[in-house]
Amino acid sequence: MRNKILYLFASLVMLSGCNSQPAYKNSNLSPEERAEDLLQQLTLEEKVALMMDNSKPVERLGIKPYNWWNEALHGVARSGLATVFPQPIGMAASFDPDAIHTIYTAVSDEARAKNAAYSAAGSYERYQGLTMWTPTVNIYRDPRWGRGIETYGEDPYLTSVMGVNVVKGLQGTDADQKYDKIHACAKHFAVHSGPEWNRHEFNAENIKPRDLHETYLVPFEALVKEAKVKEVMCAYNRLEGDPCCGSDRLLIQILRQAGDMTALYFQTVAPLTISIGKKDTRHIRTLNRLLPLLY
């Protein structure tokens, strides 16, 4: 009888230990449920550190370091040997969306393999992660810009079709996959088509609403709504006097509300601080409104 009681007690202890596992570690729950639980566990300081480009580890919660910066413009970049494909402007000239999808499926295969090798070695450096800051879907109509080779040309429709297939190739199209293959990133949002040399100061102004919505925003809408891109990166410049990284019009009214965006939103700190300045706090308020909706 005594042995049965001890066995029952031990079983109860084991069961209670299983039930005490934090929800964010329970792979049977949805990503949304796990993320919501994890947010409750994190301190404000830890949340801030995790939102940096080089995310710091949170050892008490088992969160490893992670560097968000990786590139896959025409192959996995800056990460050892990789297959090199034509530059995007050349791929666009193929007018072959299926070929683009095949290319970026291969790119994401290589990215996954490289990340697995790096992670197994305990390495979490830049250009080793699964978040690719690709594709560039800005419209290329002025060769003086200097980054035209990154784009899919001057036509919004062709850029949209190519961009959608880039994203689907990178992220995968299996609706039943449990985890994301990798994350693609639509950039640079928006009206970022040069000049490059003063991009942190340049103000794109007097943009006609029709041109904005029928030219510059078309590819972003396609990537967000059709391709379900996981990330969107803001542009370095200003639009009509407002920094794109802190624009209520771009981030709240267009991207969040009209676009119904559920992706991560990336902004680079240097362009934001340079273009906003110390006293222009209304753009900080825009980010304060946006971030709680995204994280």
Give a short overview.
The strands form 3 sheets. This protein has a 3-stranded parallel beta sheet with strand order 3-5-8, covered by helices on one side. Strands 4-6-7 form a 3-stranded mixed beta sheet.
**Which range does the strand content fall in?**
5-15%
What's the Cα radius of gyration? 22 Å
* Low-confidence regions: 8-17, 269-279
Compute the average pLDDT: 85
Record the strand order, biggest sheet. 3-5-8
Helix content: 40-55%
How many helices? The count is: 11
> Could you describe the largest sheet, including whether it forms a barrel?
3 strands, parallel
CATH class of the largest domain: Alpha Beta
Describe the model.
This protein is mainly α and 295 residues long. The protein has 2 domains: 21-62, no CATH class; 65-294, TIM Barrel (Alpha-Beta Barrel), CATH 3.20.20. It is 44% helix and 7% strand. The protein has 11 helices and 8 strands. The protein has helices spanning 2-19, 31-41, 44-50, 88-92, 97-120, 156-171, 209-216, 218-225, 248-258, 269-276, 282-294; strands at residues 54-55, 66-67, 185-189, 203-204, 231-234, 238-239, 242-243, 264-266. The chain has a 3-stranded parallel beta sheet, covered by helices on one side. It has a 3-stranded mixed beta sheet with strand order 4-6-7. Strands 1-2 form a two-stranded antiparallel sheet. Helix 5 runs parallel beside helix 6.
Give the tags.
295 residues, mainly alpha, TIM Barrel, 2 domains, 3-stranded parallel sheet, 3-stranded mixed sheet, 11 helices, 8 strands, 44% helix, globular
